[in-house]
Design a protein that fits this description.
Layout lengths: L1 H11 L7 H6 L7 E3 L2 E3 L4 H21 L4 H11 L2 H10 L17 H19 L2 H10 L4
Antiparallel strand pairs: 1-2
């Protein structure tokens, strides 16, 4: 587990106060992963929802500050937050090496990788309570 925690933290450039959050964020649904006394029955699903929302908030803040037209935000959101892009970013960052897959799976599906990137963003937000820290991780991953 420590190898996973250290590896993920190195990739995203953020050190967690609560390492349980890293393990939960990289646990695919159905993986039945546990760490310490915590079990992650749903894997990273809850973090993926939070991460998707925080990702869109970070994009919206930058869009708003840039005084761009409304249509520009839709284009940015579709391009950056798409599952295809999140999968690409996760693979390019080698995050796939740290994902705990469900039993019987040997290859990470694109949707699982996308959800893992979202889940990591959600975990960073929950740990830091700071959208700017999430933005720094997004930049480190070349997501923006």
């Amino acid at each position: 587990m420590n190898h996973t925690i250290d590896g993920v933290q190195g990739i995203i450039g953020y050190v967690f106060n609560d390492p349980n959050l890293v393990v939960e964020a990289v646990s695919a649904a159905g993986s039945r992963t546990s760490f310490g006394n915590r079990q992650f029955a749903d894997g990273n699903k809850r973090f993926a929802v939070l991460g998707d929302t925080v990702l869109q908030l970070a994009l919206a803040q930058d869009w708003y500050d840039g005084n761009e037209p409304r249509g520009a935000f839709d284009e940015i959101r579709q391009r950056v937050a798409s599952n295809n892009n999140l999968n690409r970013v996760g693979l390019a960052s080698n995050l796939d090496a740290f994902v705990y897959l469900a039993g019987g799976q040997s290859k990470i599906a694109p949707g699982t990788m996308a959800a893992t990137v979202e889940a990591l963003l959600g975990a960073v937000y929950l740990d830091s309570n700071d959208v700017n820290t999430v933005k720094a991780v997004m930049q480190k991953l070349d997501l923006v």
